[in-house]
């Protein structure tokens, strides 16, 4: 049996290295690691702080100051040959009422916005969103169709409708959102202070000819949801009205902020065929669906009420 010889030792002895000199590089390397780790930790901490701060800045919401308290939005249709004197009376009616209470008015026109082929009635939704951008400090945005006059100059929207205690007395609870037999009903325990959207019903269902929205983040969400391209492109029979009925039934986030109030509070009709008829003292009278007959019909229906509002505003 053969055994391997052990490796031959070198005849040259290794150089002598002092013990202290071997420890010095190790200490230096150790300190360098500590410094590097501390630096990385500091950088990470700064990143977290700046990232958190940036996120807070991004999520910070503008709180409306309440100046003006209300913006009245009325979309003016100059494309279908309504009599000029009728449209002038509509504008003047809003302006006089707004000046009395320190409100603002906003009169966008049909054709101002690209609706991507959707019916012109959708203009009201994007006009509301535009008004929120134009008046970021407004507390409430009130959409009022051009087929209406404000009749009672003494009533202020923030007191007559939106004051929490007043709303709690007015709101119709546990009521089908789309009458008569919708299984989705208005909330029973909703508080007035939590309401961000107020509208009425007529004999056909929800009415979007006169409604109020509280300015803020929720309102942005609501209007963007309502204006979603899928709803605009869908062939709803009543366009944005039926889209509204759909979203309030299928979006609890919207239903949870909605209050339906009696029609005479915000949306009385000149004739009773379609809904609650105007009585003296009501805030608004609307000549609902007058445009389905003709543009002249709207002017004709409005005449008996024009002199009334002018007299009441003069005496207020």
UniProtKB/TrEMBL annotation:
Q: Where are the transmembrane segments?
A: 32-50
Which GO terms of type biological process are on file?
protein N-linked glycosylation
The entry's family comment says:
Belongs to the glycosyltransferase 34 family.
- Gene3D superfamilies xref list: Spore Coat Polysaccharide Biosynthesis Protein SpsA, Chain A
Annotated signal peptide: none
Listed under GO cellular component are: mannan polymerase complex
User: Which stretches does the entry tag as region Disordered?
Assistant: 1-20
Write out the GO MF terms: alpha-1,6-mannosyltransferase activity
Q: What is this protein called?
A: Glycosyltransferase family 34 protein
Q: Which InterPro entries match?
A: Glyco_trans_34 (IPR008630), Nucleotide-diphossugar_trans (IPR029044)
| Alphabetical UniProt keywords | Glycosyltransferase, Membrane, Transferase, Transmembrane, Transmembrane helix
Please provide an example of a Pfam family that matches this protein in its UniProt record: Glyco_transf_34
What domain of life does the native source organism fall in? Answer: Eukaryota
């Amino acid at each position: 049996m053969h055994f391997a010889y052990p490796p031959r030792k070198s005849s040259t002895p290794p150089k002598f290295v002092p013990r202290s000199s071997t420890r010095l590089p190790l200490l230096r390397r150790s300190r360098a690691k500590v410094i590097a780790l501390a630096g990385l930790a500091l950088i990470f901490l700064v990143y977290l702080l700046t990232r958190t701060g940036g996120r807070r800045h991004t999520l910070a919401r503008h709180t409306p100051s309440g100046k003006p308290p209300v913006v009245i939005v009325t979309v003016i249709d100059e494309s279908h040959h309504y009599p000029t004197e009728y449209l002038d009376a509509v504008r003047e009616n809003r302006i006089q009422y707004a000046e009395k209470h320190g409100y603002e008015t906003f009169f966008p026109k049909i054709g101002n916005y690209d609706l991507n082929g959707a019916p012109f009635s959708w203009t009201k939704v994007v006009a509301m969103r535009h008004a929120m951008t134009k008046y970021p400090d407004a507390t409430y945005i009130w959409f009022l169709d051009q087929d209406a006059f404000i009749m009672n100059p003494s009533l202020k929207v923030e007191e007559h409708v939106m004051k929490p205690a007043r709303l709690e007395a007015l709101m119709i609870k546990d009521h089908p959102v789309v009458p008569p037999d919708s299984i989705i009903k208005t909330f029973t325990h909703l508080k007035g202070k939590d309401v961000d959207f107020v509208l009425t019903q007529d004999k056909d269902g929800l009415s979007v000819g006169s409604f109020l929205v509280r300015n803020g983040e929720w309102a942005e969400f609501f209007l963007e949801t309502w204006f979603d391209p899928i709803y605009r492109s869908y062939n709803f029979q009543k366009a944005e009205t039926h889209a509204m009925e759909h979203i309030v039934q299928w979006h609890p986030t919207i239903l949870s902020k909605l209050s339906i109030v009696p029609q005479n509070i915000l949306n009385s009709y000149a004739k009773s065929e379609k809904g609650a008829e105007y009585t003296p003292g009501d805030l608004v009278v609307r000549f609902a669906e007058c445009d389905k007959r003709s543009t002249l019909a709207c002017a004709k229906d409005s005449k008996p009420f024009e002199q009334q509002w002018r007299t009441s505003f003069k005496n207020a």
